[in-house]
Amino acid sequence: MKSWTPFVLSFAAALLLWGAGPQTEPAYSGTYSQYAVASDQGLASRAGAELLAAGGNAADAAAATMLALGVVNPASSGLGGGGFALYYRAEDRSLTFLDFRERAPAAASRMMFADEGSSGSTKKGPLGSRSQLGGLASGVPGEPAGIEVLVERFGTKSLQEVVAPALELAESGFPVSEAVSAMGEGFAAQLAQDPVMSAWDLRPGASLRRPALAEVLRAFAREGARAIYHGPLAEELVSSVRAHGGIMTLQDLADYRVVSRKVLQGRYFGFLWATAPPPSAGGFTMLQSLAMLERTLPPSPSYGADFLHALAESWKGPFLDRERYFGDPDQVILPLQAMMSSTRLEQRVQRFSAEEAQPSAAYDVPISRTEPNLRAPDNAGTSHLCVVDAQGNVAAVTTTVNLPFGARYTAAGLVMNDEMDDFTSDPGKPNAFGLVGGARNLPGPRKRPVSTMSPTIVFQDGKPVLCIGASGGSRIVTATEQVALRILVLGEDAAQTIAAPRIHHQAQPAELRVEKIAPLDDALQKELRDRGHEIDPIHNVATVQLIYIDRSGGTKLHAASDPRKGGAPAGR
Ligand code: DON
C-alpha cells in the first residue's frame, strides 16, 4: 500500500547508531540547556522554538508547533482534528489536562456504522468504510478551540504571534517530508478525489504551499476559534462535510467545548506518572500496567526476555477493561476507582507466571456481575509533541485526525478527521487498530470516542523529569510506557532507547507484536516464544517524541523525535 523504503533506510542508520553507542548525537535528537521542542517534523519543532526564542512559554510553543504540524504534515493532525494537552505550570506546580477531542455530531446514533465492519478495504481503496472515509467519519473538530484555550489560559503571546510561523510555512511553502510523501502515495487515489489535496505534489522534497489553509490561519489569528466555529468558514465547513455524506450541523460547531479533566496520576518505581484520563484509555492502561510491573519485575530490572514478557502480560488486563468499561466519561459511568483497586490488581498479579504467557482471558477480572459484557493500522494520522521552556513549564500534546489524511477530504481548506472510527461500530467488531470496542463506546449525540492518546509527564522528587507521548493508535500507550520505563527505571540513554526495537500486546488478538522496522533480537524472540508468546511482526510500534530533563550537574534537556517518522527536535 505504501512505500516505506526511505524510512527503512534512515531508520537503519538510527538502529546502527543505537548499537554503536552515543559517540555522535543523531539528527533525530538534540541536547539543549534552556528550552526544547520535540515534534515529529523538524520544521514544526523549529516553529515552536521560534516562539520560545521570542520569550514565549511552553504553551505558546506547543500551540505554534501544533499549528505548524497541521501545515507541514496534513496526514497526521491539523485544525480539522483534535487532541489532548497535558500542561505543567512551574510557577504554581499545577497540572492541567485539556480535552479538545472531536465530538460526534448531535445526529449521531448508536448503530450508525453497524451495517459495515470498520476495518479492511472497500472498493473505495484502503481504510474506506463509512467511519473512516468521507463526511460521516468526521467528528466535530476540537483543535481550534483547544489551541485557543491553551494559549489564553497559559500562554504569554497573542494568537497572531503564535500563528505566524505556521502562516509563513503555508504561504511560502515547505519541502514535503519523506513521511508525508509515503502516506500520500498510500492514499493517492482517494486524495485525487479532493479539489484541494489533488493539487498537492507530494514527492519528497517538492515544495508545497497551502493557500486555502493560510486563509483559515489568518482568520484564526484575527478572531480566534470563533472564526472556524461560527460564520462563513463554519458554513463552508459544514456544507463540505454534508456534501461528503456527513450529518454535522452549524449547531454542532457552535456547541463544541473544550473540557478540563482531572489528570490521572500514580506513583510507581519511585516516580510520579501524570497522564491522560478518560476518554483516553491510554493513561489507565499505562498506570495499571506499571502497578502490575512493580509487583512482577525484580527490584532492579534489566532489559531482556523477563522484562519484555512482564510488559506484554501487564497490558492484557487493561486492554480487556478498555473494551468492557470505556466510553465518554461525560456519558457513561466509568468506575475508574473500582477498576484500579488493589484487590483487582492482586488478582491479576496472582495469575501472572514469569515462565509462561497466559491467555488474555486469564487477566479478565470483571468488577461487577451486572456490568454489560457486550462487544463492540499501522499508519500515522496522529502527532505527539513535547515542549520544555526556560521557566520549567512543560507541555505534552497529542493531536490527531485519526487515520492518515483523516477522512481524506477537505472542508474549508481543512483536512477533516475520521475520529468516528474510534467509536465501536458494532459491539465485538475491531476498528482500524484491531481494538474491539464495547457498547459503552457506541456513537451517540455529542459523545467523544475512546482514545489511546497518552500525553504524559513523569515527576521525580516533585520535579518533571520526562515529557513523553506517541502516535500510533492502540500502540501509543505501550510504546510510551516501555520507552519511559527503559529510560527512567533501566537507566538507558534517551536517544538510543527511542530508536530501539519495541513490542506491543493489546490482549486481542492474542499476539505479541514485534517490529519489522526494528526487529527484536532473535535470541530474545526465541525466549519469548519459549514462554508461550505467539509472535507476529508489524511494521512499527508507534512514533514516540520525548524530552528527558537531566538535572545531574546543571539542567540538560535531551530531546528526541522518533527516527521511525523522520522528525527532529529544536532548542537552545
Ligand atoms: O485517539 C486515538 O487513539 C486514535 N485516533 C489515534 C490514531 C493514531 O495514532 C493514528 N496514527 N498514528
What does this structure look like?
There is one protein chain. Helix 2 runs antiparallel to helix 3. The protein has one domain: Gamma-glutamyltranspeptidase, small (S) subunit (Glutamine Phosphoribosylpyrophosphate, subunit 1, domain 1, 4-Layer Sandwich), CATH 3.60.20. The strands form five sheets. Strands 1-19-18-15-14-9-8 form a seven-stranded antiparallel β-sheet. Strands 7-4-3-11-10-2-20 form a seven-stranded antiparallel β-sheet. A hairpin with a 5-residue loop joins strand 18 and strand 19. With 572 residues, the chain is α+β, with helices and mostly antiparallel strands. The N terminus is likely disordered. It is globular. The protein is built from 18 helices and 20 strands. It is 34% helix and 17% strand. The chain binds 6-diazenyl-5-OXO-L-norleucine. 6-diazenyl-5-OXO-L-norleucine binds next to strand 10 and strand 11.
Structural class: alpha+beta
The shape is: globular
C-alpha termini separation: 39 Å
CATH superfamily: Gamma-glutamyltranspeptidase, small (S) subunit
Helix fraction by DSSP (H/I, runs of at least 4): 25-40%
Listed once per kind, the bound small molecules are: 6-diazenyl-5-OXO-L-norleucine
Low-confidence stretches: 1-6, 118-122, 369-379
Number of helices: 18
Per the CATH scheme, the topology name is: Glutamine Phosphoribosylpyrophosphate, subunit 1, domain 1
Domain module count:
1
- Average pLDDT taken over every residue: 92
How many DSSP-defined strands?
Answer: 20
The major pleated sheet works out as:
7 strands, antiparallel
Portion in strands: 15-25%
Report the CATH C-level class: Alpha Beta
> What CATH architecture would you give?
4-Layer Sandwich
- Main-sheet strand order equals 1-19-18-15-14-9-8
Q: Any idea what the radius of gyration is?
A: 22 Å
